[in-house]
DNA sequence: GACATTGTACCAAACGATCGGTTTGCTGCG
DNA sequence: CGCAGCAAACCGATCGTTTGGTACAATGTC
């Protein structure tokens, strides 16, 4: 079996238990492979496995967000499509975010740069759509950041409250929140 | 030295390294206490230490949010004061959230109920202020949830991007976002 | 076709290190 | 003395990792 076949299993393990919490015993049990076999596919050990998972996530982002947002259709339609993919990725808010969980504990030092890159390209892609829709560039970036704040925050709160609908509500209204016209001077006080 | 004196150190350890990542060796080094001394103060071991930290956080929430929001002053002023305390708690967005980090890995199973309770009372307190300001109760609760989504999300994104000002911006505009009048039917599509 | 060679996938067993947790024995002080 | 408080050694378990090997299909050589 090629190693790619194990990446989805690794993905769900790491995003559930985190870097420190995902032990090789758990991985061995979940994949059905002995520890030595795991080192055959991933010579770099646990760190190598997470790197593979992150590459896999990179591809996912490329296909389901970056390429999509830069493609055809109205901005509204593109953003909505993105939200559908997000909804699927996080299983409707019941599954944690890999990048968020890797930003904590031991994983933080190891994968910070990679995670940062993923996040930045995501924000940039959203901002590009908004610029294309006529928004000022600075405002577009700000709203791109706000989009990821909402996504990440909704995931955390939804899971801590056992309330997935809270996440779904947030995602569903994301496109119109992003595209709503600037009012006054953005609530200047 | 009474055990309370070590709780702040434990707090910063656990919110930095998470439950799995915070080893007794790290705790011993950070507190300057031997393991035996740690078990003298916290007979229940690591789990006992986290419980103490969570109690400490409970008191913090009680004093700096619940009591404050139920107190005197205009809703706007109370919410602003709360945001100042939040800003201080998270060191301007440079420090992670304890409850978020405890919701992952092994800690999730152990402390989920406690964390959920903390979050719920926080949301409830914000909602009460909004109801008092004349908002519909359902909308008030929704905005209370959104407030915590923004806080948690901003923390995650700010740290992954090494951009604390992103957090500060989010917190600073939180009061007026919470209090802004309902427009149309909340962006009905 | 027969046979050695190579490469891939896999694993049991064990490594040293460190884990969370416990016990021992000594110290300083009222 | 009595006892609270703690450093240090120790416990079994588990950590991530490594060694040494088996089974088997593909390839090359005669």
UniProtKB/TrEMBL annotation, chains A, B:
This is TetR/AcrR family transcriptional regulator. Residues 23-42 bind DNA. Keywords: DNA-binding, Transcription, Transcription regulation. One of its GO terms (molecular function) is DNA binding. The keyword Transcription regulation applies. It holds the Pfam family TetR_N. InterPro entries: Homeodomain-like_sf (IPR009057), HTH_TetR (IPR001647), Tet_transcr_reg_TetR-rel_C_sf (IPR036271), YxaF_TetR_C (IPR054156). Residues 1-60 form the HTH tetR-type domain.
């Amino acid at each position: 079996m090629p190693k790619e076949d194990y990446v989805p299993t690794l993905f769900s393990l790491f995003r559930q238990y985190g870097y420190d919490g995902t032990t090789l015993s758990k991985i061995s049990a979940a994949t059905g492979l002995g520890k030595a076999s795991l080192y055959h596919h991933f010579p770099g050990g646990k760190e190598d496995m997470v790197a593979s998972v992150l590459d896999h996530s990179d591809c996912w982002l490329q296909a389901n967000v970056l390429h999509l947002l830069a493609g055809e259709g109205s901005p509204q339609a593109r953003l909505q499509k993105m939200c559908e993919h997000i909804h699927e990725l996080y299983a409707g808010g019941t599954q944690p975010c890999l990048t968020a969980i890797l930003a904590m504990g031991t994983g933080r030092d190891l994968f910070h740069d990679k995670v940062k890159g993923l996040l930045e390209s995501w924000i940039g892609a959203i901002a590009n759509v908004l610029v294309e829709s006529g928004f000022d560039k600075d405002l577009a970036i700000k709203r791109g950041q706000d989009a990821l704040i909402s996504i990440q925050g909704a995931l955390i709160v939804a899971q801590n409250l056992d309330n997935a609908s809270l996440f779904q509500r947030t995602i569903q209204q994301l496109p119109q929140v992003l595209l709503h016209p600037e009012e006054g001077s953005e609530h200047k006080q």
